[in-house]
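Before relying on records like the one below, remember that each one covers exactly one chain. Contacts with other chains, cofactors or solvent are not represented anywhere in the record.
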Amino acid sequence: MSRPLVLDGGTATELQRAGIALAPPLWSASALLAEEHRRVLRTVHARFLAAGADVLTANTFRCNARAARAAGLDRAGAAWLVHAALGVALAARADVGSSAAIAGSLAPIEDCYRPDLVPPDDELRIEHEWLAAELVRAGLDLVLIETMNTRREARIALEAVLAAGGRAWVSFVCGPGARLLSGELLADAAREVERAGAEATLVNCTAPAETERCLYELRDACGGPIGAYPNVEDRSVATPASAVEPEELAELLLRWSEELGPAIVGGCCGTTPAHVAATSAALSRPRAGAGS
């Protein structure tokens, strides 16, 4: 059995550590607006790739048209953000000489942690169809629909990506009891998006202990690839910091890979290049009993 693919880590975390202030409505996408910040972003991407990431996520998490409008940008400005994000990711990949896949991040239209703010279906379709088409047009390898807190928005986003001719993974953010933040069962949501065409189903931005329970649910609910990238950020401090050490995360992801069989692993907020390097090294170690 081959080792899981390793995702990159917390791009926003690293941008903040570099002294770039992130604020709504664009959050991490605001780093695309200034040339000097794009250089920092390129370095962040390159460090994750050099650490061993197999998948690099372009900085499109908040590049939807609604966030752009709130920031005073028109549709053309929003499209520029998407293509700028891909350009920086491609440049970083070339810098390192990596063959990593580049994913475009597609997040909830409103707030990742507020399922009560999810817009009506017709608004979701308009917003996600535009961003999905722009991501596919930009030439990304796949779209990572991530941090979804309702089945409804996840399904609409997935339909938009597939209609645009793209490939999609779908990842949910969960709370206690392997439930989405909406209260819906993760198992039901996972089965729904897998049937609808998601190539992989994951959980992200969820505490490690809850993520592990979610992986058991995904394993039992899904016939296809599953994955997880937990939140390891220490949110009790003002300066971005990790609550889980690199070796600790690496050993956790190694155990999950052996016991639960995820095809994709990594970390979300708080995950640094050091975490990615430790994870890649741990997953590449020869396993006891492996070989001929």
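The first strand starts at residue 5 and ends at 6.
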